[in-house]
Amino acid sequence: MLYRVLSTLLIGLLGLVSLVLPAAPAQAADCTLTAIVWEGYTDPSFAQPFEEKTGCTIKATYAGSSDEMFAKFRTGGGRNYDLISASGDITERLYKAGLVRPIDTSKLENYDSVFSSFQGGKWNTFDGKPYGVTFAWGPNVLIYDTKAVTPAPTSWDVLKDPNYAGKIALPDNPMTIADVALWLGKSDPYDLTEADLAEVKAELLALRPNIRKFWTTAGELANLFQSGEIVMAHAWPLTYTQLSNEGFPAATVSPAGKLTGWTDSWMISKNSRNVDAAYAWIDYLLSGEGQKGVMEVTSYSGATDLGAEAIGPEKAHELFMDDLSLHAQINMWQSVKNYDQWVQVWNEIRS
């Protein structure tokens, strides 16, 4: 009898505790969202609020190139990562490899805020279905040390100046071939013949004495500037932001008509174990809070009206989000049909 009374009291107390204590987030039980991303896309400054709201931890791996990103995502048949922040040069490869799933936009409350020209973009839509959600974009720019490079450069030709021998850095990425093709005046930098590739190779070989390093991450590149090893680089705006935040005398140049760039999309693995959490993360990155977080960390441009509202009209204009004029001018990364030849040429330059 005493046992029954005690049991009843214990059950009653447990029930009372459950009413008093706050419930844990629905996804908190063993929720780790894995992603392979470009540096800056899961920065704690905006990832932590998401984790606190959902109880789902973001575990990110940085990649230095699209090829590295694709190779790592493909390992294990796409089971090692839930998400990938893919640029337009590998989105189609991921789709054709059967590694990503179609996006159900009805699961994204903020999808209608994505700029209309970015919905159904050719870089992430295949067979009439969206396989990715655009959330950021930007140009590849020339960054230089204002104390070491004078006068201020106005074109990419400065990279060939013998005064800067052994003092420049290029991305360790075959897509850099597209930039050189633009410098040479090629109309379509992603549709290059063997003769075009030979011309690009010759240009890169002539530039080789000036190249100190082929960089792989924005952090590595910032260190090269700070150590004095280099004074100029073909780079992402993220490195400029990192250098400026640390008081380094850096500036950027964006030569009109001679820019490549990237339109980045979140894509979900076909074999993701956390599909609902993946959708929650994408939706968060489309929100004003998420977009503002990405833009403040990277200085890249956002892709939603909510993001433009969150940063205000002045900053939105600075990032070309009010009319998308810069986006239309940039030769955005895209799939290359003879990419194996590009890789071969790049490896020859690297060696």
What does this 3D model show about the protein?
The chain has 351 residues and is of the alpha/beta class. The protein has two domains: 32-137 and 262-319, 3-Layer(aba) Sandwich (D-Maltodextrin-Binding Protein, domain 2); 141-258 and 336-350, D-Maltodextrin-Binding Protein, domain 2 (3-Layer(aba) Sandwich), CATH 3.40.190. 40% of the residues lie in helices and 18% in strands. The protein contains 13 helices and 14 strands. The protein has helices at 2-20, 44-54, 66-74, 91-96, 176-183, 194-207, 218-226, 237-245, 275-286, 288-298, 305-318, 325-329, 339-350; strands at residues 32-37, 57-62, 83-86, 125-126, 129-130, 133-139, 141-145, 168-171, 211-215, 232-235, 250-253, 260-268, 301-302, 331-332. The strands form three sheets. Strands 1, 2, 3, 6, 12, 13 and 14 form a seven-stranded mixed beta sheet that branches. The chain is globular and about 55 Å long. Mean pLDDT is 91; it is low at 1-29.
Key words describing this protein structure:
alpha/beta; D-Maltodextrin-Binding Protein, domain 2; 2 domains; seven-stranded mixed beta sheet; five-stranded mixed beta sheet; globular; disordered N terminus
Structural class: alpha/beta
Beta-strand percentage range: 15-25%
Largest sheet: 7 strands, mixed
The tally of domains stands at 2
Secondary structure: helix percent: 25-40%
Mean pLDDT: 91
Distance between the termini: 84 Å
Mass-distribution shape? globular
Order of helices and strands: HEHEHEHEEEEEHHEHEHEEHHEHHEH
As residue ranges, the low-confidence spans are 1-29
What is the CATH architecture term of the largest domain?
3-Layer(aba) Sandwich
Say which CATH homologous superfamily of the largest domain is assigned.
Answer: Periplasmic binding protein-like II
Radius of gyration: 23 Å
Please report the total strand number as a whole number: 14
Do you know the CATH topology of the largest domain?
Answer: D-Maltodextrin-Binding Protein, domain 2
Number of helices: 13
What CATH first level of the largest domain would be assigned? Alpha Beta
